[in-house]
Design goal:
single chain, mainly beta, three-stranded antiparallel β-sheet
Length: 101
């Protein structure tokens, strides 16, 4: 029996208000894992250090990791789905690139 808010031990929530979880042990494609009490199958391999949605995140939602905003969703992201550059735009300020001043 699982509790409604229970997460897989291979996922880590860094701060209470975070809406993304960090993969701390890889989860293979097709393998079951638990997010917020719901069992799902990994749609792709979830590598160590990557993020998954802790809940359904609508388009335009601010992704929070370690109590800090890290990006804005560019489309809706389902609970347990990989959160990465294909569906998240960075909120980090760009300063300048190499060769620029």
């Amino acid at each position: 029996m699982t509790s409604p808010g229970e997460n897989d031990p291979r996922l880590l929530r860094l701060a209470d208000g975070d809406n993304v979880l960090i993969v701390i042990r890889a989860i293979a494609e097709g393998e079951p894992f638990l997010v917020a009490g719901a069992t799902m199958l990994a749609p792709v391999t979830l590598p160590i250090g990557f993020k998954v949605a802790a809940a359904d995140l609508p388009e335009g939602c601010i992704a929070i990791r370690y109590a800090m905003p890290i990006g804005r969703t560019t489309r809706a992201i389902g609970r347990g789905e990989l959160v990465h550059t294909h569906n998240l735009e960075s909120l980090y300020m760009r300063t300048h690139g190499r060769g620029e001043a």
